[in-house]
């Protein structure tokens, strides 16, 4: 891995750094992070699954957000700062998240990633993941009253 880079569990206080990273990661708005309050609840409900990578100055240069509904695992926001890519950090973050899911006996994981993300595709498809072409994701906005 990149010299001096270390992985640690994500904390709610990493929110700002992760938000900046996700904004710069791929298309900005498509990678919007939950609010800091939601992140705090998410991390409390899903221990040992979400990680950050930090450089020698303890600056966050990579992150992955991961949780489970007790049946399947869901990964979001796997991002590594461009200057730190291709040094194995993305693979390590992915491995830590998967390890967290395995601790809880989760056997199937899904990644929700914006389309047209070639580096992510290369990372995943070369490591046993497959594209979920057999499903379509439907999205409902619950802030709008149901009809
Ligand atoms: C996908 C991503 C996380 C990979 O991070 P990374 O630290 O560069 O990944 P790694 O160094 O661990 O690479 C692992 C493997 O992925 C593949 N890979 C990743 N990027 C690649 C590229 N540009 N070209 C070819 N292969 C690539 C390779 O197989 C690589 O292994 P290798 O270096 O031994 O050949 C990073 O490119 C990224 O952050 N992209 C933007 C992600 C994003 O927008 N996420 C959504 C946010 S909501």
Can you offer a commentary on this structure?
- By secondary structure, this protein is an alpha+beta fold.
- 30% of the residues lie in helices and 19% in strands.
- It has four helices and five strands; from the N terminus they run E-H-H-E-E-E-H-E-H.
- The chain has helices at 15-25, 36-45, 89-103, 118-125; strands at residues 6-9, 51-54, 60-68, 73-80, 109-111.
- Strands 1-2-3-4-5 form a five-stranded mixed beta sheet, with helices on both faces.
- Strand 4 (73-80), helix 3 and strand 5 (109-111) form a beta-alpha-beta unit.
- The mean pLDDT is 91.
Low-confidence stretches: none
**Mind telling me the CATH class?**
Alpha Beta
* Fraction of residues in β-strands: 15-25%
Instruction: Walk across the major sheet and give the strand order.
Output: 1-2-3-4-5
- Structural class from helices and strands? alpha+beta
- Counting structural domains, the number is 1
Note the total helix count: 4
| SSE series | EHHEEEHEH
Small molecules (ligands, ions, cofactors) in the structure: coenzyme A
Q: From the coordinates shown, what is the CATH architecture?
A: 3-Layer(aba) Sandwich
The CATH homologous superfamily is named Gcn5-related N-acetyltransferase (GNAT)
**Sheet with the most strands, sense and barrel status:** 5 strands, mixed
SS elements, strand count = 5
* Global morphology: globular
Q: Distance N terminus to C terminus?
A: 51 Å
In the CATH hierarchy, the third-tier topology is known as Aminopeptidase
State Rg: 15 Å
* Helix content class: 25-40%
Kindly state the mean pLDDT as a whole number?
91
């Amino acid at each position: 891995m990149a010299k001096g880079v270390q992985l640690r569990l994500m904390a709610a206080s990493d929110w700002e750094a992760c938000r900046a990273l996700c904004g710069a990661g791929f298309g900005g708005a498509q990678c919007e992070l939950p609010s800091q309050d939601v992140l705090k609840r998410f991390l409390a409900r899903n221990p040992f699954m979400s990680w950050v990578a930090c450089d020698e100055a303890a600056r966050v240069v990579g992150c992955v957000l991961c949780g489970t509904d007790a049946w399947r695992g869901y990964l979001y926001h796997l991002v590594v700062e461009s200057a730190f890519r291709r040094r194995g950090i993305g693979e390590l973050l992915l491995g830590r998240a998967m390890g967290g899911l395995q601790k809880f006996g989760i056997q199937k994981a899904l990644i929700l990633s914006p389309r047209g993300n070639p580096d992510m595709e290369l990372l995943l498809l070369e490591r046993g993941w497959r594209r979920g072409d057999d499903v379509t994701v439907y999205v409902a906005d619950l802030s709008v009253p149901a009809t």
